[in-house]
Amino acid sequence: MPVYFARGGVLTPTGEVELREEHAWHLARVLRARPGESIRVVVDGTQELLVELSQVSAALVRGRVLEARPAQGEPRCELLLVQAIPKGLGMTEVCERTSELGVTSIWPVFSARTVPRPSAEASAGRRRRWEKVASEAAQLAGRSRAPVLEEPEALHVALERLRAQEPAPQLFVCHQEGTAEALTAAPYDPSRPAAILIGPEGGWTPEELRRMRSLGAAPVSLGPRNLRTVVAGVVAVTILLARAGELGPRWSHLA
Q1: Domains of the chain with bracketed CATH
Q2: Closest CA to 77 of 53, 46, 102, 95
Q3: 177 vs 159, more confident
Q4: Which of 14, 48, 95, 220 is most buried, taking the most CB atoms under 10 A from its CB?
């Protein structure tokens, strides 16, 4: 069952939940929900509510809280995806798939071989679209919150911000070369934040690789086959989630 992300203001003084705008429209027009049915609502990413619907319209959905518990939809490991922006709709696909899996944040970057070079206005519009796709994917997957979608920026700027934000992250740069260790076997501590760096279709340049290595990034391989950039991030995230024990039996949720 998908969840609906909401802020504390959805709770009324009488203990009911009220959903408006996109959530109400989706429940009424897309799912055709009816009074008496139940949905799950995650409030501020921390509290998960089982709500029995009492009123459903495209403008307002109202229901009473049957049960509340701490939100449990997030992986215990923190994964950051630094993705060179693919051409076409590739970044949209990356945001959707990795948000379903459970990444904490997504960092779109311009690398030396990145083909798309949109204007600042176009870049802002793309980011809003990516945020919407990521949020919808996270809700459908039953997560507790959407990943943070960082501002698209040059690779070196993103790396500096990343180091400032996470003083000691584990850095894995996906790159096919003889010295790269398999990501399935590379040293990895799930209790520490980990950043996965995925290059463009043309790959990272030697200068970019030197810069990432100087910051402590470990070159890792995703196997003997060449993967498209929109696939590589999904594979890398899946591998680290599996190594962190996050792909086993699902935890108990509200009914």
Answers
A1: 3-70 (2.40.240.20), 79-243 (3.40.1280.10)
A2: 102
A3: 159
A4: 95
